[in-house]
Amino acid sequence: MAVRRSGLAHRKKADLMFGLSELALILLVVVVVLGIKKLPELTRSAGKATRIFKSEARALKGDDSRRP
After folding, report:
1. What are the angstrom distances between the C-alpha of 53 and each of 26, 40, 49, 68?
2. For FRET with 21, which of 14, 31, 37, 64 sits at 20 to 30 Å CA-CA?
3. In whole angstroms, what is the distance from residue 68 CA to residue 11 CA?
4. Angle between helices 20-34 and 39-66 (to 10 degrees)
């Protein structure tokens, strides 16, 4: 007879990921906590950080291809 395991040890990785509803709830909490006035500044900063990260990743990728 098989024994059923309980707890997080047997859960698959996909079971632990956030779904769309969870992400929407987290975003709603962030908006409420930070306030509507700070949201444009926050999104601007996130966009700038993303652009910097992408450009640095491209630069590293270009450096790797030039090495012997």
Report:
1. 24, 20, 6, 25
2. 37
3. 44
4. 120
What average pLDDT does the chain have? 78
- CA distance readout (Å), 21 to 2, 25, 66: 34, 6, 44
Asked if 48 and 41 touch (Cβ cutoff 8 Å), the reply is no
Nearest to 42 by CA among 25, 20, 27, 52: 27
Q: Which single residue is written with the structure tokens 């910097």?
A: 52
Give CA–CA dist 24/68, Å, rounded.
47
